[in-house]
Alkaline/neutral invertase
Amino acid sequence: MAAAAISHLRRGAQRHARALLFLSTRSFSSASGVAPLAAARRLLSTSVDSGASSKGENYKPPLFDPFRAANLASSAPPLESPPIEELHDDAIPPEVEDSGPPAAPEKDPVACQHELDGLKAWVEAVRSREESTQEKEAWSLLGRSVVSYCGTAVGTVAANDPSAASQMLNYDQVFIRDFVPSAIAFLLKGEGDIVKNFLLHTLQLQSWEKTVDCYSPGQGLMPASFKVRSIPLDGNSEAFEEVLDPDFGESAIGRVAPVDSGLWWIILLRAYGKITGDYALQERVDVQTGIRLILNLCLSDGFDMFPTLLVTDGSCMIDRRMGIHGHPLEIQSLFYSALRCAREMVSINEGSNNLIRAINNRLSALSFHIREYYWVDMKKINEIYRYKTEEYSHDAINKFNIYPEQIPSWLADWIPEKGGYLIGNLQPAHMDFRFFSLGNLWAIISSLATQKQAEGILNLIEAKWDDIVANMPLKICYPALEYEEWRIITGSDPKNTPWSYHNGGSWPTLLWQFTLACIKMGRRDLAQRAVEVAEKRLSDDKWPEYYDTRTGRFIGKQSRLYQTWTIAGYLSSKMILDCPELASILICEEDLELLEGCACNLNKSARTKCSRRAAKSQLTEAPEVIRANAVQLLHPAMFRSKQSWSVEYSGGEQRSPGGRRKKTLKYGNALKLKD
Ligand code: GLC
């Protein structure tokens, strides 16, 4: 009887929330129109009240939660899809009509189906692979790290280290960024449910009200992590209910918002759709709203002069002060990747045209900015070395007023003849010349870097193997901050001493991202070499979080053991190495359409060049080659036979109904794909 009443109440609450969603999607037209959407989603969410949370007084639970108001017993929150309703991109400022592509490239259903069939065959290949003893151990550990909420798997804990049980800090939580390699490992093994649950539960957390000293960050913010807590039901010491308790940075060290969480969420959502074929998930109205809230936060107007995202120090994997405030590469690469993924997933309707246009404009401006200003190699450093300063004009060469004296002494000897990399950060009058692995790797994976730059980055890693890989792949950044720099920049952080943790420590979780980048660039050999290095130690060392010293010889001083993203990263790397076509769920190829057409009105003859046109001129490959690379749809059987696939460019031009030009690519085996 009571159960029936409870279930009725819950259904009532859902109806209430859905009605609100309907209302909100229909009738709010201002930038603040996203608030009711979020409010509606909050009603579909579970909550924990501030008293129950260890996070205490700064945490503000949803204003009204009908589930808790009704003293409900534990059970999974509703995650079924609300009815599909058209979304309006209210918060995206209307833009002038431009000649740029109005929408994401059309998906060809035949090509999509072919891609899905190919991926499914690869997943089967993964499942039937012979696993090494180390992989078996890793799978068993990964299984043990799974966190359940109301009986369903929703994520994996950051670390499961019995030796540090008394000092878990927040390592017993599910971190959004840490879960990504776990999710990839599960997806590659054909286990999509945990990933779907994770995506939907974190989506519900997105719209919680969060405050730090009475100030609330934007609504699209995704938590850094969450924990499942059991709290006693009111007035009953024996019955408990489970609640999800998120941390948006309001209890994290330094109180920094995790800017990367939402970006990772979008990247994972696309990967999930690609490999499972469950596109219905990304089409759901609440999921579309989630994507839009994240994008609204990233694309909203501010004081910025650059297309790069302006963030505070520690807003990503490096979540402590390390001098990466401003426009750090890691955030820019993930931002670019998330925009590329979102562009494929945003439902196309009249209401989303402005959003898609905003995404396109940002993508092309961002790629130009990074390719042009972040790239350094021998030639560029020599140019900077001879820079004139104090140039005041539109056509200044040294646009950011970089004083050549800031070229660090280590760089002159370090930069190889062949290759180069994207610097860590660019600010007015400041270039951070440190090499950051994650940002460089994702610039390759997402095609933020040009083909030539991507090759250059891998060439540099190869040439500097002893600095970046040595005894454990890979250094989070190179070189470490030492002496006075360490004291001032890290704030004398004892965890970030030189060649430790974020300050030049070696993080095995970077291995899966390195593998992806290598596979994309046809450098499987490099990835294989790195995996072999890691394999020599990871299991014996009990899967540490990070390694210390200049060459990564010691297990990190404060490193957790049995760190989940070390384990999952290793597994994902092994599977991608053996079944490289699976890398396509995370990779984005160069998109030439992005470089066509622009709203900036700068014509070819102007002294100040349009960045889109300039970006196009940065390409060194013929467009046909790039397009050919973009459509590698190989079947496991084809890969095994090591057949070489000649790509024939038909040169044919067609016009789509919308008037956009289409060219047809023809594969030698009669596989036909449209670009
Ligand atoms: C450390 C890392 C961070 C990671 C967390 C959980 O704080 O810096 O990137 O998400 O541990 O593993």
Q: What stands out?
A: The mean pLDDT is 79. Residues 495 and 501 are 7 Å apart (CA to CA). The pocket of alpha-D-glucopyranose is lined by residues 158, 175, 177-178, 317, 319 (CB under 6 Å).
